[in-house]
Design goal:
mainly beta; 3-stranded antiparallel sheet; 13 strands; 0% helix; rod-shaped
């Protein structure tokens, strides 16, 4: 969503407002809230969290991405209210760690500038499970014969690409 303000209607300072959000088609009781917005005229644009969606991560694999903000006065200071398990947000805006759980996650961040202004934002990240080839046994094959059997995998990011290395003569993977 987008919110706007009028300098004639809203004075400087921190104002209590309530922005409500939820995913379309989900239970509206599963809502997120942002409760405070700071705006100080004469200091340029209002402070805002610019990053809303982070690139996907893989469960258990080291991850590092930086979120960004706009407005206010540099330098910024960042804080996560509750980051996804295994990830943390440093004061310089770097989300890092090794995600512990797969799934889609939203977490609230607080952005503060050097003048003490602060604002909140919601950042989303999709954490995919680790790529795993499903265990299976193959049919016994006696020469000369031909057989084709499917392979399957879970986790990671689809679509998958399959390649075979050092396959014996007569065996191929497509």
């Amino acid at each position: 969503g987008v919110w706007s303000r009028s300098s004639a209607a809203v004075g400087a300072g921190t104002h209590t407002v309530r922005f409500v959000f939820w995913n379309e088609g989900t239970d509206p009781s599963d809502r997120g809230y942002v409760d405070r917005v700071s705006w100080f005229p004469g200091e340029g644009e209002p402070l805002a969290v610019q990053t809303r969606t982070l690139p996907h991560a893989i469960e258990g694999i080291p991850y590092s991405q930086t979120i960004s903000g706009t407005g206010g006065t540099l330098p910024y200071r960042w804080e996560a209210l509750v980051a996804p398990a295994g990830l943390s947000l440093s004061s310089n805006g770097t989300v890092s760690g090794s995600p512990a759980d797969s799934g889609s996650s939203r977490f609230a961040v607080v952005l503060s500038d050097s003048n003490g202004n602060e604002t909140f934002g919601i950042v989303e990240i999709d954490i995919h499970g680790r790529l795993r080839i499903e265990d299976r046994s193959f049919s016994a094959l006696q020469a000369p014969a031909s057989v084709s059997e499917p392979l399957s995998a879970t986790g990671g990011v689809e679509p998958y690409s399959w390649t075979g290395e050092d396959l014996p003569p007569g065996l191929s993977l497509s």
